[in-house]
Amino acid sequence: MAYEEKRKVPEPREDAALKEAMTYFGEVLLPFFGIRERVTVILPTEEIRLEMQRLYEDFNYGTEDGKILHFEFQSKNEGLAGLKRFRVYEAVTSRKYKKEVVTYVLYSGKIKNPMTEFTEGVNTYRVIPIIMTEKNADAIIQKVERKEKLLKEDLISLLLTPLMSGTITIVERVKTSFSIMQREEKMLEQDERQKMEAVLYALASKFLDRQELSEVKEVIRMTELGRMLKEEGKAEGKEEGKVEGKALDVLELLEEYGKIPGNLQELIMSQKDSAILSKWHKLAAKVESIEEFTRKM
Q1: pLDDT tens per residue, range 159-201
Q2: Do 249 and 264 lie in a common domain?
Q3: Which end of the chain is more exposed for a tag (fewer CB within 10 A), N or C?
Q4: pLDDT digits (tens, 9 = 90+) for 29-63
Q5: Residue that is last in its domain, among 195, 222, 249
Q6: pLDDT tens per residue across span 80-117
Q7: Does residue 143 share a domain with residue 119?
């Protein structure tokens, strides 16, 4: 039977953030997870087989002692289906590199007691779980706040606090973490600081609502990430302004034929597709009544 994994939708923000963290801060995160092997290389996570099928793994490290550490990130518990998928990844990766593969699964969200092994035929397959709710964000934040002199490792330990358990709200964890990183910004290279801020903000955007994200943006507005988000917001605002202007142009043409029904006004103003509004504008210039426009739109 052939196994195939296809990404038809954009990669989840949480996965993207975790991959970014693993790429640049793995030497700190692995000991944080209780993994002692020393990493020497980051390995590819996409394999194309003869069948032209793509197997998408989340993250692979090569270690000093010749192993491959394979990581998967799970915010929803896939149970047996997930384990069977990981077993395929292990087999393909082990065969390609001719090395022992150990799979760690980082469980976030509300996952507490995931299925970590199954027996099929004469074989038992198992993964090593890293359950983020077993780690306490309060303890990590308090430890960092109490230290007089922080190390880079202390700042990196703050990145995954949104995935952990604790009494401190997620929005407060994120705001506190950003504040600490800003205070200690001289400790980090600009590139490192940007990556850390990006990882933390990506996880924040997954778990926080719009109001809470606004609070976070207020804290980070003076950072480079904050300036980038501000520019992005300006660009979105300009685009929204253009769309609204097109909708008003349509209404202006239709007003020549009399009073526009409220439901039609609402329909036109709520349309966000610029191409559709352009078509409506051309139509409004051709018709001879509001009724004709409504019928043809």
Answers
A1: 999 999 999 999 999 999 988 888 887 887 878 888 888 888 8
A2: yes
A3: N
A4: 888 888 888 888 888 776 555 444 556 788 899 99
A5: 222
A6: 999 999 999 999 999 999 999 999 999 987 888 999 99
A7: no
Give the residue numbers spanning the domain of 22: 1-134
Provide the number of structural domains found in the chain.
3
Whether 213 has a pLDDT exceeding 60, the answer reads: yes
Residues 21 and 123 in one domain: yes
Matching residue, tokens 């490192």: 192
CATH of the domain at 130: 3.40.1350
In a domain, 245, yes or no: yes
For residues 83 and 93, state if they share a domain: yes
CA–chain centroid gap for 178, Å, is 18
pLDDT in tens, 233-245: 545 555 566 777 7
